[in-house]
Amino acid sequence: MLSQSIYISNFVPKILIKTINNINYKLFFDGCSKGNPGLAGAGAVIYKNDEEIWSECCFVGDKITNNHAEYYGLILGLRKAIDLNITSLLVMGDSQLVINHMTGKYKCKSPNLIPHYQTAKNLEINFDTIKYQHILRNLNKRADELSNLGLK
Fold first, then answer.
1. Is the overall model pTM greater than 0.85, yes or no?
2. DSSP strand E in the chain: where?
3. How far apart are CA 131 and CA 53, in angstroms?
4. How many CB atoms lie within 10 A of CB 27?
5. Which domains does the chain have, with CATH numbers?
6. Is the preceding omega at residue 111 within 30 degrees of 0, hence cis?
7. How far is CA 28 from the centre of its chain?
8. What does the pLDDT profile of the chain (152 residues) look like in tens digits?
């Protein structure tokens, strides 16, 4: 997927290039909620050396918040990365809240999100290396597309 290779290389902050070059697998995730809370979908995509190797979307439910859907996207992708025996992973998402929870910058205090946060943290132990990076929404187009497809 040539456009994805250019997409990652041109838009990821230069400070991450060294880290990214050492990690062949990248997971992009997203969640959406129409109404917030409302109908929600989630999506995730995994790239190996900037080539898409897996993608999936799912319907999360009704009366679901965007943050809840974002966690679904993350968990969906982490589970697949484990199934694919990936041990080093760079995780990128446009949810500053989820990324900051996962890196420990923010403490997860919401009773509705704690179970999803704990699930994601428990999945982390399956990786030798896992890094998280917040990216802007316009750099998360494929995962965004998938999360919206999850609504259908």
1. yes
2. 25-34, 38-48, 51-64, 88-93, 129-134
3. 19
4. 25
5. 2-149 (3.30.420.10)
6. no
7. 4
8. 323 333 444 444 444 444 455 789 999 999 999 999 999 999 999 999 999 999 999 999 999 999 999 999 999 999 999 999 999 999 999 999 999 999 999 999 999 999 999 999 999 999 999 999 999 999 999 999 999 999 98
